[in-house]
Amino acid sequence: MKKIVIATGNPGKKKEILECLLGLKDTLELLSLNDFEEVPEPDETGTTFEENAALKAEYYGKVLNMPVIAEDSGFVLEALPEMFGLNTKRQFQAKDDMDWMTQFLDLVVPLENRKATFYSSLSFYDPATGICQTVLGSTTGEMVDFPQAPLEKGIPVSAVFRPEGQDEVFSALPGAIKNKISHRGQAMQKFVPILENFVG
To answer: What is the pTM of this model?
Structure first.
């Protein structure tokens, strides 16, 4: 059974990635960064989600000398395009997810236009071949006034983002539906064939 490291410390992202990889659970042993001695995080110097995902995959793959899955994600608000994006998680100095959400809603609720697009880029790097493969997924919707589901650790904004064509926010949707239509789910649908090819 081949081993792959999911290189994220975000529990919400890791949970969604694992859910999308259930079909490969009998052929892959999925590890996390917690299975290794602490590795310093790389500087995310890319100018796109794809560049940052690839940067992280190659960095951890070379440090750990193992195949790695890395992800970079965020969202863009149509009304405030200069904010969030690649700096989504660093947009506010927040002590926890609730603090981040409070600051976010203070900014968003007064806006007339709350349209937003989420992006997720996944990258797979295999140090044995030196090949890095990267995909991108996206989902469009709008932000609502207040959390309509419990905050998910590491991905709090999922509780206030309602994707197009749905009556509920991300966090309130059944996992099967969310993983089909979400930005990360869209990326995983493109990504799974890469892993299937790796498994052989």
So the answer is: 0.92
